[in-house]
Amino acid sequence: MDPRKQRTVTALLSAAEELFRAHPADDVTVDDIAARAGVAVGSLYNHFGSKAGLQAAVVENALQADRTYMDRAYLRSGTPLQQLYAAADAYLDFYLAHPDYFRMLAFPGAPGQYAAGHELADRLARSVHEQNERLTDALRRGVDAGELRPVDPEAVATVLWASWNGVISLHWRPDALRREEGELRTLLATATEVIANGLLPR
């Protein structure tokens, strides 16, 4: 892409992310986004077609960032249990680098918050499901290899994912319960260890 066009696209995406973070999507206008980006409104339509198209691009950026971080866990060698620990670390790294993307994927609002409605909400849900399937696959391989006791891999994957989300959300608290990066990493390892120990053959 032409460098000038790329700068415009980047500015629009950045402006949209900032505004969608601060306000309900329905309250954000194309004029607001263009003004924040410092470009003409026509540039938004030229590059994204509509506000819904721009919002879909923001969501796709979040999904791509998530995939990039999680690939570090699942594309590496190691036992299924080692992949679980690596996935927890990668998930936290994703959150620390992209907290707004994390919120978008882990704690989405109602479908109505998206300009593209249910279609975009479903896209988010499918992507989260795809990532959980990778976790499920690691667990299934561990069970099949006899490294883990027979369990429902999908149910355990959901428990792991939900517990990781809960631990990471402690970073948002405004009170004494807030936890910083080092503490979050320890807590994630603890949650994963507790579940992993329960998965070991008896």
UniProtKB/TrEMBL annotation:
User: Which Pfam families does the UniProt entry name for this protein?
Assistant: TetR_C_33, TetR_N
Q: Which UniProt keywords apply?
A: DNA-binding, Transcription, Transcription regulation
- Which Gene3D superfamilies does this UniProt record tie to the protein? Homeodomain-like (1.10.10.60), Tetracycline Repressor, domain 2 (1.10.357.10)
Domain spans labelled HTH tetR-type: 6-66
DNA-binding region extent = 29-48
Which domain of life does this protein belong to?
A: Bacteria
What protein is this chain from? TetR family transcriptional regulator
Species: Pseudonocardia kunmingensis
